[in-house]
Amino acid sequence: MCLGCVLIVSVVEQLAQVHNSTVREGMEKLCSFLPEKLSLQNICYLTAEILGPDIIKLLSLKLNADVVCHALHFCKQKPGQPLCHLYNPPQGGLKRALHRASRSLGHSPPQTSPGDSLGICWIPALAKFCQKIEYILNSALPWEDADGDKHSAFPTLRGFYWRGRDCNDRNSDVYPGRRPENWDAHQDSNCNGIWGTDPNDGIPYEKKFCEGSEAKGLIVLGDSAAAHFHIPPEWLIAAHMSAQTFSNLPMALSNELDWPQLSGMTGFLNSASRFPDNSVYLRLRRRNRCNHRDYQNISRNGASSGNLWKFLGSLSRNQLSDHPAIVVYTMLGNDVCNGKSNTESKMSTPEALRAHVLDTLAFLNSRLPQGSHVVLYGLVDGRFLWDTLHARLHPLGQLNRDVTYRQLYAFLSCLQVNPCRGWMTANKTLRTLTSQRAAQLSSVLEEIAASAKFTNLSLLYLDYPLRERFGKKLSSSA
């Protein structure tokens, strides 16, 4: 709640500055930019009506977003903890500014709100949407799946942006990745677009083009990197905002702020990505057209070796009726990343990682057809997050040159929501320690790939070549 409040109040203040208007007009402009879908625009206007007068009063006193959100109790100081702030403290200090804000309001805003425990889901217009999000977060299964085959004809809410599109959502025997039924002479049972028979010789097209091609699907088990988590910077740059800016917000919200359709693993849509290479799925598809639509991105923000079991069951594969698959296991950081102040004690140990990965491989061996492969990617060395970004301006700070990534990392750590306190920190010793643990865990994965044997799987270990592949690009475009 605190982070969201500071971001929104900052954008409102900057919109007023950019357009040389009042704070009220800045609020109205932001609301007008939001789409009507999911009632986002109406919710914005309602929130502005309730909280607007207090925000206007506080910003008119030249108090920054940190002070505003503390005064409205969206940001709260826990016992023994400092007052968290994104911006440099006002002259005289944050406590003095907060005391001034409280006196100005002349009343005490409620210490709790429905949003404290339920987020925005207490709002009636969003209740059903939140129910859908809760379902897919718990299951990683498509919300729209009429025949229960774990594939969908709907794009978001874990639909075909995440796994191959179901070409017949009324028949559970029709889905991407299955071996063709009677060579698909009469229907497209595997949704790859190849079916029917050649009138010249009566041979089914699937048999003619795909027999012996060793078709294999792609399954990705990953974290936010594999899911392609992304917050567009234009959402935070007031100078460039328009009604077009937030046109993709409903889609992003229904995809958990992930963009798997553009990811490096299972992406299939054109994008303005700075990375020129096609996704792994598109390469497999280009190599063998029979692989069309046979992909599953079973990734989740915050996923690690220890919690993968919670959604691994959403994998769709039948040993008897489906093609083999190439599984990419790519947990790049969350086994060493967390937002806790005692971050080191919360990292996965080599012993725990070994046990979790072997359990995952045993599950895959029980589900995947013979001839499948598993690629175990090592953890990334995340020190680049500090090395390349800490002195750069964050999009929110570009207008007034007042917020760097260093400040953002410190703010997130204070709130204990830093996605990786071990790497996104000014503490060089902690950054080094985190990378050392990541290297230890990568060694465990490499050893497993070299020694573990399974009847249906072959294993391969690869280091994740982040610096080699993307280092220069990250430095130039971060």
UniProtKB/TrEMBL annotation:
<dbReference type="Pfam" id="PF20825">
    <property type="entry name" value="Saposin"/>
</dbReference>
<dbReference type="GO" id="GO:0050528">
    <property type="term" value="F:acyloxyacyl hydrolase activity"/>
</dbReference>
<dbReference type="InterPro" id="IPR001087">
    <property type="entry name" value="GDSL"/>
</dbReference>
<keyword id="KW-0732">Signal</keyword>
<feature type="domain" description="Saposin B-type">
    <location>
        <begin position="1"/>
        <end position="79"/>
    </location>
</feature>
<dbReference type="Pfam" id="PF00657">
    <property type="entry name" value="Lipase_GDSL"/>
</dbReference>
<feature type="signal peptide">
    <location>
        <begin position="1"/>
        <end position="16"/>
    </location>
</feature>
<dbReference type="GO" id="GO:0005509">
    <property type="term" value="F:calcium ion binding"/>
</dbReference>
<dbReference type="InterPro" id="IPR048593">
    <property type="entry name" value="AOAH_Saposin_N"/>
</dbReference>
<dbReference type="InterPro" id="IPR011001">
    <property type="entry name" value="Saposin-like"/>
</dbReference>
<dbReference type="InterPro" id="IPR039676">
    <property type="entry name" value="AOAH"/>
</dbReference>
<dbReference type="InterPro" id="IPR008139">
    <property type="entry name" value="SaposinB_dom"/>
</dbReference>
<keyword id="KW-1015">Disulfide bond</keyword>
<dbReference type="GO" id="GO:0050728">
    <property type="term" value="P:negative regulation of inflammatory response"/>
</dbReference>
<dbReference type="GO" id="GO:0009104">
    <property type="term" value="P:lipopolysaccharide catabolic process"/>
</dbReference>
<dbReference type="GO" id="GO:0006631">
    <property type="term" value="P:fatty acid metabolic process"/>
</dbReference>
<protein>
    <submittedName>
        <fullName>Acyloxyacyl hydrolase</fullName>
    </submittedName>
</protein>
